[in-house]
């Protein structure tokens, strides 16, 4: 059982050959209080839960392996999470980061503007956001924009329209972001995603 931290670049994963897998995905800004470590301590890493929770992490892994059905797995996992939430406290920085996430997901792209709306300095926001989300607010905004483009590409082949609807200045900027964050052009990514249904992508670009 492992924790996959937030990523600054996409990671392709081949899910074939897995007998049983349960993936618990946290919304940005929610993992820190539960895991007990700052999100940026796990950025671009995959860490065994036992290394974070100690013996209780190993015990949870054994409990999940011993479960005989998916409902039983979910019940044991929910119980473990409930125990952790009662034992930990949430810093104010996490709540601030989540409010910033909502603004960035809503279309605001300037960090200074987000900080102004939240009544804090841009420097304070960057520090709180990075600690609670794992990447900086500017990088997060790029991820949101790229994800928006991927969703639009599922129903449209017009690259210029996709770029404009997702918030890019032009199609060239969309392609540049894809190359940097995903390592592929938009066309190559969509072709790969369609041809390999068993493969998923996680991280700071399209799938989070």
Automatic annotation (TrEMBL):
It comes from the Bacteria. InterPro entries: AraC_XylS_family_regulators (IPR050204), Homeodomain-like_sf (IPR009057), HTH_AraC (IPR018060). The keyword Ubl conjugation does not apply. Keywords: DNA-binding, Transcription, Transcription regulation. The keyword DNA-binding applies. GO terms for molecular function: DNA-binding transcription factor activity; sequence-specific DNA binding. Residues 94-192 form the HTH araC/xylS-type domain. This is HTH araC/xylS-type domain-containing protein.
């Amino acid at each position: 059982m492992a924790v996959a931290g937030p990523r600054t670049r996409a990671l392709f994963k081949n899910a074939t050959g897995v007998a049983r897998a349960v993936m618990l995905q946290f919304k940005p800004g929610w993992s820190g209080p539960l895991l007990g470590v700052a999100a940026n301590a796990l950025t671009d890493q995959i860490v065994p839960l036992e290394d974070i929770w100690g013996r209780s992490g190993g015990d949870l892994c054994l409990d999940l392996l011993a479960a005989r059905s998916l409902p039983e797995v979910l019940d044991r996992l929910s119980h473990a999470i409930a125990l952790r939430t009662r034992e930990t406290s949430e810093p104010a920085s996490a709540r601030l980061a989540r409010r910033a996430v909502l603004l960035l997901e809503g279309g605001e792209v300037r960090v200074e503007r987000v900080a102004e709306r939240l009544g804090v300095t841009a420097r304070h926001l960057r520090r709180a956001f990075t600690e609670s989300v794992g990447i900086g607010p500017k990088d997060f905004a790029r991820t949101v924009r790229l994800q928006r483009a991927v969703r639009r590409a599922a129903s449209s082949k017009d690259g210029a329209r996709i770029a404009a609807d997702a918030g890019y200045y032009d199609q060239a900027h969309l392609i540049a972001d894809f190359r940097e964050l995903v390592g592929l052009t938009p066309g190559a990514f969509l072709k790969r995603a369609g041809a390999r249904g068993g493969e998923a992508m996680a991280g700071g670009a399209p799938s989070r």
